[in-house]
Structure prediction request, 171 residues.
Amino acid sequence: QTSSAPYDFVGDGENMSEAITSARLFAIFEKKQLSLTFVCDNGTPAEQIIKVTYGDSPADIPAEPTKTGYSFAGWFDDDGNKFDQSAAVTKETVYTAKFTPKKYTVTLVVNGEEFKTVEAEYGSKVNFGVPSSGYFLFWYDGDNKQWTDSSGEMLEAYSTDGNVTLYARFL
Prediction:
């Protein structure tokens, strides 16, 4: 059997069951089918594999995955190279979805007036600061849930997929 990358040997075009004294043989090769694996890194959907003929570019790729609080940044290989759908495929590769946290606006209200706005990145903790007047206790939302301590530091990482308004609570 003969092998020549990027092709797979699939036959010689002849029935070799009878003795041959003189023959002209032709090797037949097909381009290899390569796998591209797309892994979603805790996004939805899970892993998907597509087959592409060596030297071709993939006609279809998985839809952009989703992940709450994050924007899809693209598919990247282990070396950090971004997937290019127009590029010819020459090796099997695993691509992982990369996500970047979304940024949201937090509007802070003191005594019915807008105090300031702060940008909060999904999954991070922010210190919103405190108003200078009165004895400040914490920032809370419209459901009366406490978001910060008395220094204005968030109690937990930002996990709301959208903008919010918080209100100052005083003693």
